[in-house]
Amino acid sequence: MRKKNILVILSVFFILVVSFVLVSIFAKDYRISKQDSYIAYSGGIDLYHASREELIELDLCKYSEVFGEVKNAKEAAGIAAKVIEKVYGKEESPYIVKLNETANAWIVYGSLPAFHLGGVAAIAIDKETGEIIMLLHTK
Known about the structure:
The protein has 139 residues and is of the alpha+beta class. The protein has helices spanning 2-26, 52-58, 73-88; strands at residues 30-32, 95-100, 105-109, 121-126, 132-137. Helix content is 35%, strand content 19%.
């Protein structure tokens, strides 16, 4: 009886681990962060409260494209996904999106799969014009 219980527990654990890995690999969604639920990249300025000028100074890629008015976080994440894949050749979903009211720009961070180390892309998209005003990749 004890051997059977151990097998059941191991089976459940295995199923949970496999499910977690599959969801991590195949899930594509957009997360919209709450007011203070962000982590600023180390040593940098707070992208969620930076001025437009500060964001432009941080732009490392000088990527220039305009998409038109960006009405919501989902549109911002979609634009970010296209630009990040075009520039860096990879997808970094789910994307974390928040409006920077100071610069009137959507700030979009990519994310890494579970158990992966490295940096992610960060992009600032002007809310009214859809202009890419900043694009960088952390290490």
